[in-house]
Amino acid sequence: MGFTDSLADYFGFEEHDTDLRTEVIAGITTFLAMAYIVVVNPTVLASAIQIQGVSSDAVYQMIAVVTLLASAVAMLVMAFYANRPFGLAPGLGLNAFFAYTVVGALGIPWQTGLAAVVTEGVIFILLTLVGAREYVIRLFPEPVKFAVGTGIGLFLAIIGLNAMGIVIGDGGTIVALGPVASNPVSILAVIGLFVTLALYARGVKGSIVIGIVGTTVLGALLTFAGVVDPGVLIGKWIQPGGFQPSAFPQATYDISPLVGSFVQGFRNVEPFGFALVVFTFFFVDFFDTAGTLVGVGQIGGFLDDDGNLPDIDKPLMADAVGTTVGGVLGTTTVTTFVESATGVEEGGRTGMTALVVAVLFLVSLVFVPLAAAIPQYAGHIALVVVGVLMLSNVTNVDWDDPTHSIPAALTIIVMPFAYSIAYGIAAGIVAYPVVKVATGESDDVRLGQWLLALAFVVYFVVRTSGILSQAI
């Protein structure tokens, strides 16, 4: 039996109606869509993590290396244990909460913040081992499960359109159309988007990869040809006067100042305040991951008739291990990325897709900014394409039944506008028992669903009332 046959047998290609070529393309697609995290995560965390005697540039490079390592570990667990095509990396919302709220606004030492991340990860491992996380996810009301995919689609679309400069923040109308015609990035991104959609419509295999890489190459050519100012289309690695490879930060592989720093964070901890920080990390990570697994599982055809993802405890364990390892190494909560939908849409169905992503992240260690060579506006073309395709999931909702349509609609609406998968799920879960009671169908609501709704209410009180800042 050859190497290819061994991979096919181990990952079950025939059982999942896939092949090695499809899985590799899917893995490359997912990698290109989430590669931006290698630059964005260090940028966010370096604003909060300061190590005595270590320059800010060196800290940035350490966090980049740690980001790649934590992501790769989580995806290797996803590949070989869960056998699912999901990519994982430090989550954007949670790293911002760590840097700007926990460390910045609340003044908690960054080591203590990492201690909270490790604590959360260990709790997740224990809860996953006993099946508690799977039980909670199965409590999600059916309309919420079926709405998550569409909500994630809109969430992906707005993230992608913003990165492409097409949708921007606006004080008068909250969001507005950006100055597309005068913005070289937007013009190039729009061209790349429509070329990608056209290729997909024609059934071209690997259309999303072609779109991302093609847009990146065209941006580089326009820059080198002098059509636009250096730095506009390729990013900060292009310096005035042309392309300068020396401008790339070189990898700092000595990450010892970061590794294990969470241990120091447990010293002189204020118990109540620390517990609230762990609680916040826990809630957002739990429901972001749950929503992503269910939503992406829906477009991949992984869900059963009840809208559940079989053996969901296995991908949940990958998330839990990734979070724990990440906290130990020196980065924030690792979560399942919604960008995984891009690879699944390209046909990824097994852990081979996750393995490809993990290998590409490890290869990026050789030259830390390798993954960042794909500019965000190009990589996020994939998010818009997949967002469009995920809207079809809305047909699974029973729109004629208000006890289904209202929770589903709130899940879909809140997710992109609150910029959070977890908040969208929360809106649907809280609404479900309310409308069931209003229609005289309270018997349909399980005790666990009431408790879950109550837990979300408590979370929103903690998160939005100022209790967290008062407790520190």
Automatic annotation (TrEMBL):
Membrane-spanning intervals of the chain: 24-46, 58-81, 88-108, 114-132, 144-168, 180-201, 208-228, 272-296, 352-371, 377-397, 409-435, 447-468
Pfam families noted in UniProt: Xan_ur_permease
A GO term for molecular function: purine nucleobase transmembrane transporter activity
Entry protein name: Xanthine/uracil/thiamine/ascorbate permease family protein
Keywords: Cell membrane, Membrane, Transmembrane, Transmembrane helix, Transport
Main location: membrane
Presence of the UniProt keyword Manganese in the record: no
Annotated localization: Cell membrane
Organism: Halarchaeum acidiphilum MH1-52-1
InterPro entries registered for this protein in UniProt: Azg-like, Azg-like_bact_archaea, NCS2
Membrane topology: Multi-pass membrane protein
GO cellular component terms attached to this protein's record: plasma membrane
Family in the record: Belongs to the nucleobase:cation symporter-2 (NCS2) (TC 2.A.40) family. Azg-like subfamily.
